[in-house]
Amino acid sequence: MTHQPAEETESGGVPPLEDFDPYNDAFRADPYPEYDRIRSLGGPVYWDYLDSYVVSTHADATAVLADSRMRLQPPDPVAELMATVVPESLRSMSRTLLFTDPPDHTRLRGLTRRPFASPRLGRVLADARELADAILAEALHRGHLEVVDELAFPVSLQAIGDLLGIPRADLPKLRDWGQAMSPAADIPAAPSSIDSAVAAYEAFDDYFAHLARARGENPGEDLFSSLVEAHQQGALSRSELHANAALVFISGHETLVAFTASAFLSFLRNPAQLDLLREHPDLAAAATEEVMRYESPLQLATAGGGRWTAEEVEIGGRTLPAGVRVLTFIGAANRDPAVYDSPDRFDITRPGARHLALGHGLHYCLGAALAKQQGTLLLEALAHWPVRLASEAVGAPEWLPLFMQRRLARLPVTVTPA
């Protein structure tokens, strides 16, 4: 089902997005010049590669994410087609917060949000800070740190694992399953990633079945116990229980992993900003917002599905027909010069960031508070870490070969006493 764009006219036609390739090395290293070009086209544009409409300005992105006429669930013909090509086990993920509209989204969000605002969160964050401090102290002793695997993953996995109620000894294997599933959520999913994603989700499904039996007999204060209780009361199906637990685990650590690596890279490239953070550690919260704006962990909203127009919609002065997919380029919106002064400058004193890195509107990230508080505690730890940093990377940093997710594959740094 292809919806060709109307020719651009003064009455609001939609121009095509031409010569756009987000899968090459140059774009992966620095997507922002291309985002500038797309924004310069004004309003939504049509990308024939994915038969989608693209929004890239902050105003249009905000409008799309807040508009109730923009649905996460695709039209029936598209859903029926997807059911024939998406493996059955992966279709369970369509029953998560990431892909559902009200009333299901309202129900699932209500069942999931409570632990993110509970006193338990404070204990989780305190333990995460203690772990981060220990890792940084050990790195100073060794003289080097690989930011992604030695700091970002351990801290983020422990935090979301403790909140969810996953035994710490199990976190490494769940990390591997999560990493196997992420490429299948890209735009488009690489064909070679599907088999690995299926195997990983089946492993998650089996794991959470066993954990549900244990929590049913001996519940705790964790999120998974809360979801098991909802399942026992008939408020949550078995597939919804397992799929949403997998989603919370994956999204709950991947955002912070991407954030941590990008934060270190941004400060390495802007040492005066690191000096400023060390002089004023109280800027850690503002610096967290700026890192999220400057290098958004997610470059597009809501995985590979985007939004679907439930009816004809006007965005940015252009009319989009009913039943089409709209992709929101968050990475572009967060560098919009109409909203941010000198948007390509990394500035931890930037007032009122208003970034969209964690979404907007009804589907604003459930774990936003956790993500921001984790980011802040990591930057506070960095501010008080008495070291000089230098990148060990030779040439350009290595980014994951994904469009949706912007994360460094690794970031080795040398560490010497200040």
- Oligomer designation: single chain
Amount of helix: 40-55%
Mean pLDDT comes to: 89
Unreliable stretches (pLDDT < 50, length at least 5) are 4-12
CATH class: Mainly Alpha
Whole-Å distance between the termini?
60 Å
Overall number of strands: 10
Number of domains: 1
Q: What is the string of helix and strand elements?
A: HHEEHEHHHEHHHHHHHEEEEHHEE
**Treating each run of at least 4 consecutive H or I residues as one helix, how many helices?**
15
Class based on secondary structure composition and strand pairing = alpha+beta
| Overall shape | globular
Describe the structure.
The protein has a single domain (25-417), classed as Cytochrome p450 (Orthogonal Bundle). Mean pLDDT is 89; it is low at 4-12. The protein starts with 24 loop residues before the first helix and ends with a strand. 49% of the residues lie in helices and 9% in strands. Strand 1 and strand 2 form a beta hairpin. Helix 8 packs antiparallel against helix 9. The strands form three sheets. The chain has a five-stranded mixed β-sheet, covered by helices on one side. Strands 4-10-9 form a three-stranded antiparallel β-sheet. The chain has helices at residues 25-29, 32-40, 58-66, 76-85, 104-113, 119-142, 147-164, 171-181, 191-217, 223-232, 238-269, 271-279, 284-294, 330-333, 368-383; strands at 45-47, 52-55, 70-71, 144-146, 307-309, 313-315, 318-320, 325-328, 387-391, 412-417. It is α+β, with helices and mostly antiparallel strands and 418 residues long.
